[in-house]
Each structure stands twice: as C-alpha cells, then as structure tokens.
Design a protein that fits this description.
α2 packs parallel to α7. The protein has a single domain, classed as Glucose-6-phosphate isomerase like protein, domain 1 (Rossmann fold), CATH 3.40.50.10490. The protein is built from 7 helices and 5 strands, in the order αβαβααβαβαβα. The protein is α/β, with parallel strands linked by helices. The protein has a 5-stranded parallel beta sheet with strand order 2-1-3-4-5, sandwiched between helices. Bound molecules: D-altro-hept-2-ulose 7-phosphate and zinc ion (ZN). Its EC number is 5.3.1.28.
C-alpha cells in the first residue's frame, strides 16, 4: 500500500508549489525583463544574418534545448519560415560515441567543433550553471567565434564566470532546480514569441 499523505495535505503541497513558482516568476521578471529583450535581439540578429542556434543541457535542460530548437525549426504560435536550430542532445550514436571514446564532459563541445560557425549562437542551459559539459560547450563556442546565451539559476555557477562581453546570462531567481526549469521554459517561450513577432509583426 503506498504511503501517501492525506489528500488535504497533498492539495496544500500543490498550492505551495504553485505559490513558489509564482514567486520565482515575479522575482525573475523583475531582474531579467530587459535582458530577455537583449537576448531576443541577439537571436534575431543571428538569424537575420543567416546564422544558426545550437542548444544544449542535461536532464530537464536537454528537454528544454530540444523544445527550443523544435519551436524554431517548426513553429511557435504562428505560421512563418523555418528557422535554423540544432539541439546537441538528440543524436544517440554521436552522444554515446563521444561519451565512450572521449569523455562525457566533451558531449557538446565536440559537436560544436564540428557544427559551430562564427556568428552562430549557443543556447547553454544549466540550472546550477555548473555542468561540466555545458561549461566546455561555452568554451568551445567562444573558440568558434560564437556568441552565448546562458540560461542559469542559483548563483550562475561556473558558466556565469565563463561568459564574455556580448554574451547574455538569463538567470532564474530561484535556488530550486524545479522552479528554475519552470523559469527556463518561460524564457524560451518569451524568446520564441519575440522572434516570431519580429518576423511577422506583433500579434493582435
Ligand atoms: O530535471 C531534473 C530535475 O528537475 C534533472 O533531470 C536535472 O535536469 C539533472 O539532474 C541535470 O543533470 C542537472 O544539471 P544542471 O541543470 O545543474 O546543469
Ligand atoms: Zn513551447
């Protein structure tokens, strides 16, 4: 027999989680609103110049990396041209070979060495800011002349310290991995919306 808390305790827990998420949402809006506009401008300029966006992350952030590339390649909310984006989290043969023959830390950087071009942007996603393979991806992107937009949380971690002038850190105002992931998805949807509005004109 599962040892679940009584239903009213579980309902209260759900209310607390919603409240925590709403608090993280409001605090992140306060700190990141202007930076989101700047990050969208960076992505728009990259796409208009004919470059592409690579994305990476681990676990839930791998899902976010794919979510973002899918919304660019396919569509977000409106019909428009397909946009070039590649999630570096999906090619299982490539991923297993790199992890097996080199090191898990090189999972994304090796692919950036192969695919990254000057002017492309890396969307680097890490809730802690400390995943070694995402740090190496940032370094590899810089070596290829790419810009970086980092989605982080907590204190920004090692990734925040690796960023250069012209890069952009979007940091969720929370120390909970789950709440940070919720903010990251909102960041991604804001960026997709601003890109789409730029291409098509603001929606009604
Ligand atoms: O989704 C979750 C937890 O909500 C986990 O899968 C989480 O993404 C993984 O533990 C990641 O390895 C965490 O990496 P990072 O966000 O610190 O870079
Ligand atoms: Zn979405």
């Amino acid at each position: 027999m599962p040892n679940d808390a009584p239903n009213n305790d579980r309902a209260r827990l759900i209310a607390t989680l919603f409240e925590d998420s709403a608090r993280a949402n409001a605090a992140t809006l306060e700190t990141m609103q202007d930076r989101l506009v700047a990050a969208a401008d960076q992505l728009i300029a990259c796409l208009e110049d004919g470059h592409k966006i690579l994305s990476c992350g681990n676990g839930g952030s791998a899902g976010d990396a794919q979510h973002f590339s899918s919304e660019l390649i396919n569509r977000f909310e409106r019909e428009r041209r397909a946009l070039p984006a590649i999630a570096l989290t999906t090619e299982s043969s490539t991923l297993t070979a790199i992890a097996n023959d080199y090191d898990y830390d090189r999972l994304f950087s090796r692919q950036i060495e192969a695919l990254g071009q000057r002017g492309d942007i890396l969307l680097a996603i890490s809730t802690s800011g400390n995943s070694a393979n995402v740090c190496e991806a940032v370094t590899a992107a810089h070596a290829r002349g790419m810009g970086v937009i980092a989605l982080t949380g907590k204190e920004g971690g090692r990734i925040a310290a690796l960023l250069k002038d012209g890069d952009c850190e979007l940091r969720a105002a929370s120390s909970s991995t789950a709440r940070i992931q919720e903010m990251h998805l909102l960041f991604i949807h804001c960026l997709c919306r601003l890109i789409e509005d730029h291409l098509l004109g603001a929606a009604d």
